[in-house]
DNA sequence: GTCACTCTTGAAAGATATTTTCGCGCCGTC
DNA sequence: GACGGCGCGAAAATATCTTTCAAGAGTGAC
């Protein structure tokens, strides 16, 4: 039973087989993998071309594991089986070969000159954006957009760095005339979540997928019948059980100087922006005038004489 | 005998499996193919992606031939067997698809499918990052880093969308042991700015460079002798006259659906991240332990069972 | 410290896909 | 019209992939 649950879980989460977002997917799912599976995933992400040339047995031997483990890993990555993973791998290999070099930039070091820091950071964030976009499940995204566009009210939960993302989303939604509120106080969040019911929507933002202060209000909202959306980097985390719609953010490798919060924020913001644009499209009739109105309203706050 | 000859012939001629020149190879070898093989080759050249999804049996049925013929065709094209042809096909398909992608330079339209929205947004934000990184004055950045790293206390001003960026900066600086505060209330900001003096630092964040509510506290801080830093997209705006150091964010084109706030935020966050990393480098001795300490402190807030 | 439990793992059986073999039937030639 | 050669597909043989199952490792509770 537990096995069944887990399998269907991971399988449905990554419904469409990832085309080029494989490295990102490996990084995203690595924490939820067992040691042996991680070895396989690592090999696959590290040398797509080489692994594409191997059979299950070959890859199992290379990684010192068994065929069963290889197949399990393929499944976890969202493919029906090893055969399909292998095809995707071949595609990926062809892509990297034709495209520019993988360019694995070095970590940011303590003694990097400031110009290097700028370049590396910009590159890393670009990479994060590309990964997130590639790995984002557009079906789930579309569903989330529909839910939010039609919701009576929208509650948003996030703490720490994710709280800012939540506020960003709330600001945007308010600007196009939706009723949205970003909660940062966990207690108040729960208190408010109790008020939700069918027809309302709740959005939880947490990179770890296991932040109690965010899970709790989402659970309450879920139980009350509101439609729930989770934006998380760990689609297998505890929060997913209370999420009707799951939007996965991709995870970049982090270093000592560059905490995970930095790239997760970039990723989350992209998702939030996509939600916003999607909703603005659906509600264009009301969103467009609302946007220009809010623009107008701010005009007088800016000193007109820009020299 | 003759059969053997032909096989070894074509086999050795195309020794290295063709990478992307498959269509050409099909055309070249077509005359030497039998009718059935031509049908298979045609199908393969016409729809690589579709054929890559088929098994030998499937392709045989599709072309109205047999498995044996499909395998023979694969051999003729220079592959050891159908399996390898299929891998090459998958690679080819991926290549064509990625080649088609770069057509996302257009604006986001109201009727864009959600997948396009994601691609375009990601692309735009990547562009913004690249522009910002290229335009960022590293000398000014280095100076700002020095100021902040040495400041007794740091006040940060931002309203609207920029307020979130300011809070992000404050959160980060606090995590490495600096005394930073992000003000969102313009009145309180001014009230606090009055307290500043030489040795303190003030950071103002405004895209327009002319937001009165942000200019005012920065002016006060400037007059009181604090070192002032402005992060703005308009280096010629009124705010610059009160800024000791000016960090310019780049501005991407905006559209009706994509307000300026979106790309300016991306740009501002990159600058903030650069500041943070720069400061963390300078104060590594204290920053590193502080970072891991704050990491530790949060650990128990996460549900430990992530697997 | 030990026990019971769950989760991970690989060996081997089972299912599919691919390759090879083999012979039929079409086609041109004498 | 008969013979020889060749293309072709059915089916056997093989390789590859998938599933099952039980043993082992790790973990938490008492």
Automatic annotation (TrEMBL), chains A, B:
Domain (SIS): give its ranges. Answer: 144-285
Start and end residues of each HTH rpiR-type domain: 20-96
Supply the CDD domains for this chain.
SIS_RpiR
Which UniProt keywords are given for this protein, alphabetically ordered? Answer: DNA-binding, Transcription, Transcription regulation
Entries under Pfam families matching the protein: HTH_6, SIS
Transmembrane regions listed in the UniProt entry: none
Name the domain of life this protein comes from. Bacteria
InterPro entries recorded: Homeodomain-like_sf, HTH_RpiR, RpiR-like, RpiR-like_SIS, SIS_dom, SIS_dom_sf, WH-like_DNA-bd_sf
Q: Please state what the protein is called.
A: Transcriptional regulator
């Amino acid at each position: 039973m537990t096995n069944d649950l887990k399998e269907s879980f991971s399988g449905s989460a990554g419904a469409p087989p990832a085309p080029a977002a494989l490295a990102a997917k490996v990084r995203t799912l690595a924490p939820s993998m067992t040691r042996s599976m991680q070895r396989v995933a690592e090999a696959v992400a590290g040398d797509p071309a080489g692994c594409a040339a191997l059979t299950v047995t070959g890859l199992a031997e290379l990684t010192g594991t068994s065929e069963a483990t290889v197949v399990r890993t393929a499944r976890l990555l969202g493919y029906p089986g090893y055969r399909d993973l292998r095809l995707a791998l071949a595609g990926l290999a062809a892509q990297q070969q034709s495209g520019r070099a993988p360019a694995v930039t070095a970590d940011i070091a303590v003694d990097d000159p400031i110009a290097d820091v700028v370049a590396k950071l910009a590159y890393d964030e670009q990479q994060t954006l590309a990964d997130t976009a590639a790995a984002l499940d557009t079906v789930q995204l579309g569903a989330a957009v529909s839910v939010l566009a039609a919701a009576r009210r929208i509650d948003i939960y996030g703490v720490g760095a994710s709280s800012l993302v939540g506020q960003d989303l709330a600001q945007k939604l308010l600007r196009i005339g939706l009723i949205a509120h970003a909660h940062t106080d966990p207690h108040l969040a729960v208190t408010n979540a109790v008020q939700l019911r069918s027809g309302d929507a709740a959005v939880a933002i947490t990179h770890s997928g296991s932040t109690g202060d965010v899970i709790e209000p989402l659970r309450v909202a879920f139980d009350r019948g509101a439609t729930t959306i989770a934006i998380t980097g760990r689609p297998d985390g505890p929060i997913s059980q209370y999420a009707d719609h799951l939007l996965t953010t991709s995870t970049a490798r982090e270093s000592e100087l560059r905490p995970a919060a930095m790239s997760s924020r970039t990723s989350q913001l992209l998702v939030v922006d996509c939600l916003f644009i999607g909703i603005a499209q659906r509600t264009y009739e009301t969103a467009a005038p609302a946007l220009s109105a809010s623009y107008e309203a701010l005009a007088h706050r800016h000193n007109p004489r820009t020299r």
